[in-house]
Amino acid sequence: MSQLLTAGIYRLTSCPTLLAFASVVGKKEGEGPLGSYFDKINTDTTMGEQTWEKAESRLQKDTVSTVLSKAKLSPPQIDLLLAGDLLNQCIGSSFGLREFGIPFLGMYGACSTMAEALAIASLLADNGLVQNAVAVTSSHFCSAERQFRFPLEYGGQRTPTSQWTVTGSGAVVITASSKDSPPPYVKGICIGQIQDLGIKDINNMGAAMAPAAADTIKRYLTETSTQASDYDMIITGDLGRIGSDLCIELLKRQNIDLSINHADCGKLIFDPKKQDVHAGGSGCGCSASVLTSFFLPLVQSGKLKQILFVATGALMSTTSIQQGESIPAIAHLVHISNTKD
Amino acid sequence: MSQLLTAGIYRLTSCPTLLAFASVVGKKEGEGPLGSYFDKINTDTTMGEQTWEKAESRLQKDTVSTVLSKAKLSPPQIDLLLAGDLLNQCIGSSFGLREFGIPFLGMYGACSTMAEALAIASLLADNGLVQNAVAVTSSHFCSAERQFRFPLEYGGQRTPTSQWTVTGSGAVVITASSKDSPPPYVKGICIGQIQDLGIKDINNMGAAMAPAAADTIKRYLTETSTQASDYDMIITGDLGRIGSDLCIELLKRQNIDLSINHADCGKLIFDPKKQDVHAGGSGCGCSASVLTSFFLPLVQSGKLKQILFVATGALMSTTSIQQGESIPAIAHLVHISNTKD
Q1: How confident is the model at residue A192 (pLDDT cuts 50, 70, 90)?
Q2: How far apart are CA A54 and CA A65, in angstroms?
Q3: Could you check whether the bond before residue A151 is cis, i.e. omega within 30 degrees of 0?
Q4: Under 8 Å between Cβ of A239 and A207
Q5: What Rg, from alpha-carbon coordinates, does chain B have?
Q6: What percent of chain B has pLDDT over 70?
């Protein structure tokens, strides 16, 4: 049974296991530094569908099918499906997953959604409320550009602080732990609080989200009486180059040193020299695909013992930006470990 | 500790209490048959804000403030805030609630969101994972029309099957039960599965959502070995007149008789003769405001002993409709009771 340390922060005691994980990405992601780690790379970014939105739904469907196959489970063995994406009304998830016939919880945490879904599923699994659950998120560069910025055909220029939405999806099967469950295990959760320091630049999401990541990391370290150096890596979702530097700086002012063991999925997924992505990758699918392809296998094999996965989300819309509003942000944290101790 | 009966269906054993509930609505809702039940009626539907979207955020903020005041709790005493709405990227919630400083979980279930948030909060409270949580949702006629249909200034004609989005918000404080906790109690949960029977008419949401409501009700009755007549009322969220009739008809074919004790929040909130709303009310705020203003006090006082609250959501977007897609729908169920037995 999980222990509630303070509002939103939990120590899990049975430590649910992440039984299987899968990632499906697009062509550009496949050409990046992590290309060899993904389960499936679609060289055709339409995924054979007629619209970008249908392509994104297809990504989620393929990723869930892949993760179920890796876990050797069928849909009737899954108690809950927790999913979300960036599209208006989260249609990437609802259309992608409607055929599975699994009880469905739709989440919205923008790019933090993978951590949110993992957190809720892990809490439920730690307390016998699900045997198996699946958490999945996606994003698609072309559907995101059309919805949040400009149609691709317009050929708009991007600012140096802007990030490139990842075409990709990641899914995890979260399973209630038994005596001989294999790692990785979920040991702790921190649900984020909305932070808004007044950033209004829609092309600088990293700056808007950095305070949320810093706040969540600080709250978790404080409540668990741990130091940043107790973890092999502290991995943010998609702060990118600018947001990562800001997050490190904000925590430095609080005497927390993240400079040594910090990584950011948005910085890892593309090659900054060869791939023209400016401040890095972003999107619900960025943290989800990097976590499931690169980091979870490292925790599984024991090369990484303890990691904090901190996915951040910018909770604005085009409407709120047009109305002159600043960008509220949130970050949820999942503590993943190679051991239950 | 909750008992998982089958995928997505739970019997709660400690039975969390709904400690306080509040509703804030607009002028038209205040003029309807339930006008005297709401906590606050805004005769100015801008709520003093400069845009409809900011007005909707203001609704959520006011409703949460009201419910906290009724519960005699302050934000630091709330472990989790679970919220969602219909606006793109759920900005009604993120902007409305950003100042409370409470750990925040964003939900997206379209108009089923109140039942989804209540369900998750109740599961967490039943298992000691939160002491107090708040579930809140909202909708606003003017922000919904602008986003999903036409700007109000266009003066578009509405079809007879169309529904009128409620300007309103409802919030509930869900509290872990102790020996002397007062009713209403949450006794059971059914998480919905996505249903899509191929309805493509964006102006007939009731028809799209009726199969989801019927499926969820049938699954819950079957798994709990209960009959529809075991409940004083089975309350759907916003099926409206057409969807309600279809839901009753679909269940009749399965030998489940809902004709006697069915009510629909979308049918109750407006007067079909005096208020020009066609098939009835709809929106995240419809089921939330009617549940919190009208039904929960009846369960609290014992006039209703057992109710099933089944909020339905249509999971499409304007983009999916323009691309010729049908409308997937979902319904989540919360069993609320005057006694723990």
Answers
A1: very high
A2: 16
A3: no
A4: no
A5: 18
A6: 100
Tens digit of pLDDT for each residue in A92-137? Answer: 999 999 999 999 999 999 999 999 999 999 999 999 999 999 999 9
The answer on pLDDT for A200 being more than 90 is yes
- By CB atoms closer than 10 A (0-12, 13-18, 19+), residue B76 is exposed
Are A53 and B323 inside 8 Å of each other by CB? yes
Cβ distance B10 to A51 less than 8 Å, yes or no, reads: no
> Residue A110 and residue B127: Cβ atoms within 8 Å?
no
Closest-approach residue (CA) in chain B for A78: B7
> For residues B79 and A8, what is the distance between their CA atoms, to the nearest angstrom?
6
Check CB contact under 8 Å for B192 and A51: no
Nearest CA in chain A to B3: A129
The separation between CA A219 and the C-alpha centre of its own chain, rounded to angstroms, equals 19
In this complex, the residue of A76, A80, A109 whose CB is nearest that of residue B106 is: A109
Reading the block at residue B185, the tokens are: 């109690």
Residue A87: what residue type?
L
Rg over alpha carbons for chain A, rounded to the nearest Å, is: 18
Distance CA B332, CA A188 (A): 28
Measured CA to CA in angstroms, residue B122 lies from A84, B10, B184, B189, B225 at distances of: 21, 10, 12, 8, 21
pLDDT at A61: 98
Please give the C-alpha separations between residue A304 and each of A183, A299, A300, A338, in angstroms, as whole numbers: 11, 5, 8, 7
pLDDT value of residue B158: 87
Q: Which helix (H) or strand (E) holds B30?
A: helix B27-30
Q: Is the pLDDT of residue B269 over 90?
A: yes
Contact A4 B79 (CB under 8 A): yes
Nearest residue on chain B to A216, alpha-carbon basis: B103
> Going by DSSP bridges, is the β-strand pair B329-337/B306-314 parallel, antiparallel, or unpaired?
antiparallel
The DSSP H or E segment spanning A219 is helix A205-224
* Inter-chain residue contact B90 with A79, CB threshold 8 Å: no
Per-residue pLDDT at B9: 97
- Is it the case that residue B150 has pLDDT exceeding 90? no
**pLDDT score recorded for residue B7:** 94
What per-residue confidence (pLDDT) applies to A151?
86
Global pTM value: 0.97
Q: For B325, which of A95, A116, A316 is closest by C-beta distance?
A: A95
Whole-angstrom distance, CA of residue A121 vs CA of residue A136:
11
Report how many Cβ contacts below 8 Å link chain A to chain B.
185
ipTM reported for the complex, 2 dp: 0.97
pLDDT value of residue B157: 87
